[in-house]
UniProtKB/TrEMBL annotation:
Its cofactor is Mg(2+). Residues 24-81 form the Acetyl-coenzyme A synthetase N-terminal domain. HAMAP family: Ac_CoA_synth. Mg(2+) binds at residues 537, 539, 542. It comes from Motilimonas pumila. Residues 83-466 form the AMP-dependent synthetase/ligase domain. Catalyzes the conversion of acetate into acetyl-CoA (AcCoA), an essential intermediate at the junction of anabolic and catabolic pathways. AcsA undergoes a two-step reaction. In the first half reaction, AcsA combines acetate with ATP to form acetyl-adenylate (AcAMP) intermediate. In the second half reaction, it can then transfer the acetyl group from AcAMP to the sulfhydryl group of CoA, forming the product AcCoA. Belongs to the ATP-dependent AMP-binding enzyme family. This is Acetyl-coenzyme A synthetase. ATP binds at residues 387-389, 411-416, 500, 515, 526. PANTHER family: ACETYL-COENZYME A SYNTHETASE. Pfam families: ACAS_N, AMP-binding, AMP-binding_C. GO terms for molecular function: acetate-CoA ligase activity; AMP binding; ATP binding; metal ion binding.
Length: 649
């Protein structure tokens, strides 16, 4: 069995890494025996304006969940990511931008980044943006995305980034919930040779009458494509920054002032605005970046994530820049214009640390040698994986074909809510087992509990919880603290529930088995089944819908949707296409169902609850063991569904 394979740390790697296994053991021990002392010391990884005297003040008590770190300290995020490096690294490269088109690239030194961020921060101020205001970013992957983020932090505005692949409807929902006052976007984005009409989507979103909170739309010219213009509301980025001052004093922020909101999906209702605050988040992103990737001066680091996801926040922008690293921001996709693009970018920029997702790895693996053709990838030293469990076959291929068996793979488990990586190998410290995220990072105390919430010890499997807080933890659901407590702290009282299941082996290694709630992970993108279902039933011809995940070779999980039409409607091929298109419009392309199953009826209990367990089994063809169906209101529904499945395309 492949999971028995172990890759010990190579001696040369341990010798040159920041930390070896003995070092890890010692530091981990300190971090959990005395978290207060540990974080008092390691909070110093940042420059503080007013030093903190208090370190940890956190409670997971039901009804009183309250999380504060470094609460009396003050600092500024952009000053930590830029200004403090200027004296020693002003002329070193902060951001390398690699365009969708391989012929387009540019780089920004720390000095240049400082100038751009200050100018844009001043431009925002001139538009009336103040400390505490929420600024919505709907941007392509260009340096200005990072510049806008840092400019917000410079003046104490709270950014809320919406992934450019989300639809106008999804964007409007996030603007309304966060009460954003400004949207920053571009004329168009460019991905895989195709233009994405970002400004047009913003215009469309703002036709929603509840988006009146938006006063201005700032538009970056990226492609030069045609855009509609609303005088008095729309402003060109280049025009408002042109004459802006190149100096902007960083705002002094309290450690617990909000830094950003980022929406993520849960098992119920609308996406939640995950709120991260300033001090703890940045301490944690900075420290995890350093140790997990074994960052050392001279490294060139490339994270392929989009800024619209938490990985793009913590490990594309904040973690790397706070460490004074060189970070690559890539506009395109890993297999355009050729299958070898990812490998080519590694060679072109001498990337030493590569951080990508299993879905990309599997897509390249399917193409075999084409994915590395004509490249050496000699510069690589450490490789990372994030977003979903990596299957051992993909791990082995990544290790062998991309890393030439030289580079340790850090399989990093974490979540939007956790702010930074919680379970992960460290390159010089951890023997690797393909498919396992291995051990907790410093200060992280995972546990497994059974369904009654009892902690279970030793080699076992259960629900993954955290028994105590870490600095990067989310503080609340924006505008709904009750929902925060309900979602994360009520299932297992006094613990943070991750929503994931995991197994722990005899070496104490964790193997994430996936979500145990109604959350899907499609190509590393997180989606609630409830969200897709409500998009489906919003269609005038649909009466009812139920969505389940099914294994998918490249995407990890695919979306399987059971759809019941209103009486009198016929399931035609045209309607099939229309329904898929409808979901794209409501949420975005990433939510498009892979399979539509026209169902005459759904299996329900007598109290009307849909039995998803049965739907999951039918979707995967596992109909030999449907379990107890006697509680169904109408057991014949099951046979009908199995019959229909044969006709599903
Ligand atoms: C969910 C969080 C963290 C940034 C990207 C996703 C799954 C994430 C791993 C991993 C197994 C993983 C979990 C988690 N997940 N990384 N290395 N191994 N599962 O962030 O959108 O908040 O999703 O992604 O199920 O709960 P997210």
């Amino acid at each position: 069995m492949s999971e028995l394979k172990i890759y010990p740390v190579k001696e040369n790697i341990a010798a040159n890494a920041l930390i070896d296994d003995a070092g890890y053991q010692k530091m981990y021990e300190q971090s959990v025996v005395n978290p207060e002392g540990f974080w008092r010391e390691h909070g110093q990884i940042l420059d503080w304006i007013k030093p903190y005297t208090k370190v940890k003040n956190t409670s997971y008590d039901p009804g009183h969940v309250d999380i504060k770190w470094f609460e009396d300290g003050t600092l500024n995020v952009s000053a930590n990511c830029i200004d403090r490096h200027l004296a020693t690294k002003g002329d070193e490269v902060a951001i390398i931008w690699e365009g969708d088109n391989p012929e387009e690239d540019k780089s920004l030194t720390y000095n240049e980044l400082h100038k751009e961020v200050c100018q844009f921060a001043n431009a925002l101020k001139a538009q009336g943006v103040k400390k505490g205001d929420v600024v919505c970013l709907y941007m392509p992957m260009v340096p200005e995305a990072a510049i806008a983020m840092l400019a917000c932090t410079r003046i104490g505005a709270v950014h809320s980034i919406v992934f450019g692949g989300f639809s106008p409807e999804a964007l409007a929902g996030r603007i309304i919930d966060s009460n954003s006052t400004i949207v920053i976007t571009s004329d168009e984005g460019l991905r895989g040779g195709r233009a994405v009409p970002l400004k047009q989507n913003v215009d469309q979103a703002l036709t929603n009458p509840d988006t009146k909170c938006i006063e201005k739309v700032i538009v970056l010219k990226r492609t030069g494509g045609d855009v509609a213009w609303t005088e008095g509301r729309d402003l060109w980025w280049h025009e408002i920054t042109e004459n802006a001052s190149e100096q902007c004093e960083p705002e002094e922020m309290n450690a617990e002032d909000p830094l950003f909101i980022l929406y993520t999906s849960g098992s119920t209702g609308q996406p939640k605005g995950v709120l991260h605050t300033t001090g703890g988040y940045l301490v944690y992103a900075t420290m995890t970046f350093k140790y997990v990737f074994d960052y050392q001066p001279g490294d060139v680091y490339w994270c392929t994530a989009d800024v619209g996801w938490i990985t793009g926040h913590s490990y594309l922008v904040y973690g790397p820049l706070a460490n004074g690293a060189t970070t690559i921001l890539f506009e395109g996709v890993p297999n355009y214009p050729s299958t070898a693009r990812m490998s080519e970018v590694v060679d072109k920029h001498n990337v030493s640390i590569l951080y990508t997702a299993p879905t990309a790895i599997r897509a390249l693996m399917a193409k075999g040698d084409e994915a590395t053709a004509g490249t050496s990838r000699n510069s690589l030293r450490v490789m990372g994986s994030v977003g979903e469990p990596i299957n051992p076959e993909a791990w082995e291929w990544y290790y062998r074909a991309i890393g030439d068996e030289k580079c340790p793979i850090v399989d990093t488990w974490w979540q939007t809510e956790t702010g930074g990586i919680l379970i992960t190998p460290l390159p010089g410290a951890t023997a690797l087992k393909p498919g396992s995220a291995t051990r907790p990072f410093f200060g992280v105390q995972p546990a497994l509990v059974d369904n009654e919430g009892q902690i279970i010890e030793g080699a076992t499997e259960g629900n993954l919880v955290m028994v105590d807080s870490w600095p990067g933890q989310m503080r609340t659901v924006y505008g709904d603290h009750e929902r925060f407590e309900q979602t994360y702290f009520s299932t297992f009282k006094g613990m943070y529930f991750t929503g994931d299941g995991a197994r722990r082996d005899e070496d104490g290694y964790y193997w994430i088995t996936g979500r145990v709630d109604d959350v899907l992970n499609v190509s590393g993108h997180r989606m609630g089944t409830a969200e897709i279902e409500s998009a489906l039933v919003a269609h005038e011809k649909i009466a009812e819908a139920a969505v389940v995940g099914v294994p998918h070779e490249i995407k990890g999980q695919g979306i399987y949707a059971y759809v019941t039409l209103n009486a009198g409607e016929e399931p035609t091929p045209e309607l099939h296409a229309e329904v898929k298109q409808w979901v794209r419009k409501e949420i975005g392309p990433i939510a498009t169902p892979d399979v539509l199953h026209w169902a005459e009826a759904l299996p329900k209990t007598r109290s009307g609850k849909i039995m998803r367990r049965i739907l999951r089994k039918i979707a995967t063809g596992d109909t030999g063991s449907l379990g107890d169906t006697s509680t169904l209101a109408d057991p014949s529904v099951v046979d009908k569904l199995i019959e229909e499945k044969a006709k599903v395309v």
